[in-house]
Design brief:
Layout (H helix, E strand, L loop, with lengths): L6 E2 L12 E4 L5 E6 L6 H21 E3 L8 E2 L12 E6 L17 H12 L7 E7 L11 H4 L15 E7 L7 E6 L13 E7 L13 E6 L3 E3 L10 E3 L27 E5 L9 H6 L7 E7 L3 E2 L5 H11 L5 H11 L10 E2 L2 E9 L3 H6 L18 E8 L9 E2 L1
Parallel strand pairs: 6-7, 6-8, 8-14, 14-15
Antiparallel strand pairs: 1-4, 2-3, 3-19, 4-5, 9-11, 10-11, 10-20, 12-13, 15-18, 16-17, 18-19
Helix pairs in contact: 2-5, 5-6
Length: 412
């Protein structure tokens, strides 16, 4: 029995398989969840799922949070000792870009407002979420996101900034880059074999729906793999204000619980990261573009434009926070991708995207990737005991502002 006034931290989960999930969601918006590799034998799937179910039942029965104790989680695990929780919200946002000096564009208008909306929506004073770091404009440095164990640069300090122990969610909002595109016509990705400078294979023949400015259905343009990047704008940066989170020097979530399997030590701790930037991932390449950033973090969410770009809207962060306020037991990954609908996305318009596009969320773990993207709640994402202890499988979900089932963006 829980103490009077206490609330459970996580609930038992229903059995989920790691099979490919495809369904037409509400409002004709397409949601996709999938993973890499061939699925293991059913017996192995069931065993992995049973391990997770047993683990979560144990947490539900033994850990609780008592109102008035802020980030404290009381109770004991089998070996004794308190549960560790990441309740802090860290935010970094940049509006004040200098054209041709920082990033790939000029000043933005709503990045700080966007982060402030998320921060104020989450930190309500009741202790369920608490204040982490908050940096804006020139106080946001590229070295906030680089891991010194990976770069060898003593100036890099994600440990005390974007990847801090005790952080539940870190949210960055600023410029990114949309590159890797060409106007080479194709009807199949097998025809795309000439990446432009700065891009590499693999390739994708990317198709857009009617009216999107792309070639007619059945045709597309060749697009190629490029690293994903976020940009800052400060004289205190150490990487030319350029954060390459594909290249293996940004590692998120490594902790004593996750272990040091990613080669980044165990001095991080953020449990979910949001990268609210232009073309945070590119269609068809998302798993590879985010995979190197996983080091224990449960989830990474971002924007995946298909024919347009991430819109400079002021309310993406507040819409995300409103999902938590409405029901903290709902899937936190689902909350991120459904923001597209909350912002009015339909028919390649709205949803926080200029043109056609999707919100994307990804997880990586040998056994739990599907659980992270389908089931882990806002309460569960605080738990450091849920940290990813290996890589292996990836799982991803998306919701788009158009019917991506009818108009797939990739022509094989």
């Amino acid at each position: 029995m829980l103490p009077p006034g206490a609330t459970r931290v996580e609930r038992p989960v229903e059995k989920k398989t790691n099979a490919k999930i495809t369904r037409l969601d509400v409002c004709g918006v397409y949601e996709l969840g999938t993973r890499s590799r061939v699925a293991p034998a059913v017996a192995n799937e069931e065993r992995a799922e049973m391990e997770m179910r047993t683990r979560v039942r144990f947490l539900a029965g033994r850990w609780w949070r008592r109102p008035g104790l802020g980030a404290s989680l009381l109770g004991a695990v089998a070996a004794g000792g308190p549960a560790a929780a990441g309740t802090k919200i860290t935010t970094e946002a940049v509006d004040q870009y200098v054209a041709n000096q920082c990033g790939w564009g000029g000043a933005l208008n709503n990045r700080v407002a966007n982060n402030n909306g998320f921060r104020s929506g989450m930190i309500t004073g009741d202790g369920r979420w608490t204040a982490g770091a908050n940096y804006t404009n020139s106080s946001v440095w590229d070295r906030d996101m680089y891991d010194p164990e990976r770069t060898g640069n003593a100036l890099d300090n994600d440990t005390n900034n974007f990847d801090r122990a005790g952080d539940g969610i870190a949210f960055f909002s600023g410029h990114g880059v949309c590159d890797g595109a060409t106007t080479t016509l194709c009807t199949s990705s097998t025809q795309c074999n000439s990446p432009p400078p700065g891009a590499t294979m693999p390739s994708s023949c990317k198709q857009g729906p009617p009216g999107s400015g792309f070639p007619p259905l059945g045709q597309g343009w060749c697009h190629y793999f490029t690293p994903r990047r976020a940009f800052t704008c400060s004289t205190s940066s150490a990487h030319n204000n350029d954060v390459n989170y594909t290249g293996g020097q940004v590692k998120l979530g490594e902790s004593a619980t996750s272990g040091g399997w990613s080669g980044a030590g165990t001095n991080g701790g953020v449990n979910m990261a949001i990268l609210d930037v232009s073309c945070g991932v590119l269609p068809q390449f998302a798993p590879q573009q985010l995979s190197q950033a996983f080091a224990g973090v449960h989830l990474i969410g971002t924007i995946m434009p298909v024919t347009g770009d991430t819109a400079d809207v002021p309310n993406r962060g507040s819409a995300f926070a409103a999902r938590w306020a409405s029901n903290e037991w709902q899937s936190v990954a689902g909350s991120w991708i459904y923001v597209v609908l909350d912002l009015g996305g339909a028919n390649c318009s709205g949803g926080g995207i200029n043109g056609c596009g999707c919100n994307w969320v990804q997880a990586q773990h040998a056994s739990w990737a599907n659980w992270y993207v389908n089931t882990e709640s806002w309460v569960g994402v605080k738990l450091d005991s849920n940290d990813a202890t290996s890589s292996g499988w990836w799982a991803g979900r998306q919701i788009c502002n158009y019917n991506q089932a009818q108009y797939p963006y990739h022509l094989p």
